[in-house]
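Many introductory courses stop at the sequence. We go one step further.
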Amino acid sequence: MDWIAAPGVGRFLRWRHSRVTLQLPSMLVAMLMVWDGLTGPSLAPKNLATVLSWVHYRGWLILVLLLAGNFFCLACPFMLPRSLARRLLRPTRMWPRRLRNKWIAVALFGLLLFAYELLDLWATPWWTAWLIVAYFLGALLVDSLFRGAPFCKYICPIGQFNFTAALISPLEVRARDRRICAACRTVDCIRGREGRRGCELWLFQGRKVGNMDCTFCLDCVHACPYGNVGIIARLPGSELWADLWRSGVGRLSRRPDLAAMAVVFTFGALLNAFGMVRPIYVVEARLADWLGARTELPVLGVIFVLGLGVGPALLLGAAGWLARRWGGGCGPLLWIVTRYAYVLIPLGVGMWAAHYSFHLLSGFWSFIPVVQRLLSDLGWPVLGAPRWGLGPVLPMGWLDPVEMGLLGLGLVGSLLAAYRIAAEDRPDRPWRAFLPWAALAVLVWGAAVWLMAQPMEMRGMLMAG
């Protein structure tokens, strides 16, 4: 299956203005969200900024990544102003070599999760609007100073979330025939041609493997003179155990920064859900007493340091040590942990999908009364009075099986990836190397099941009371 060759949708995707066509409505929606967030009601369920950001965008994002690919980066509105600015400003600087890694992005991703809890972003339209503005300004500033797309590749937390989740997506932008790429001398997929830019993340299609750092921008599709690039179906998650050298990325086993992103991505899913269940209040109260803290900042700081740093480091270190001892591996512990850390990604995707689908499905129609209210405030009440009483799209009793099914799929994916890596690295004794990582996967899955079985706050929805 190749979406670029498909009738209808393929013709649209091959059109050189397809991305701008998708970005324009995204830009309009983002501007309305900022406007409503700064000037509209302060009650989150009645404001477009919070409802679309924390109920709808997150839910659709993870589901599209799980079922298709990184199409939200394709329609990213933050890239439109920077693309327009580059018609006037031609950056000549290269992103500093020492910063060509994901460590800044890992820190910003963790900081965003921390700010979400500390500032109650889900309940604060004003802060949500300013977060969107910060994204626009950040992309514009960074990409106006440096060539390529360093904001997407090295900074953007949403982009890193998409790249990481897309490692198990069923679609991939790749060359149809690598022999054509091997014979190519112009490398148009990177350099561009005839006014069409090439890949700004410098992923050469002849050596590109998987979805890491790929924004699905389709610049390579438009620039390739041979029509040799497609959006092609593949076995979801197969790149997790294929330790091949990847253009623009290298080998995953030699990228501890990418492994750290996978760990923060997975344990961040657990921590984000933990912030919405009742036990968090008991933990925070006891920590506040122990620290003598009168504000939430130090309490949340301890929780995040333990939940995203100390705890995962101990768990992965123990699994790596046992795998090396039982499996007979002789590599450094850091290499083993880096090699296997990616097996957590299916569980992370399952947890994010279970959590976000709960909010999306239970608050699916919440955007309708908000749009009605916004149009009435603008003096154009064409949709009538807001209907605040709209319920979920599915019976609430159906949500638990959906959530458990997604978590179950995540566990199966993680176990499969762990065994394939063990079988590839230790073909003589794969089970011994596999069992510690299987135990870790089951432990994370158990924590996810426990979290999703707890009563969860209906954040951002009027049904919260």
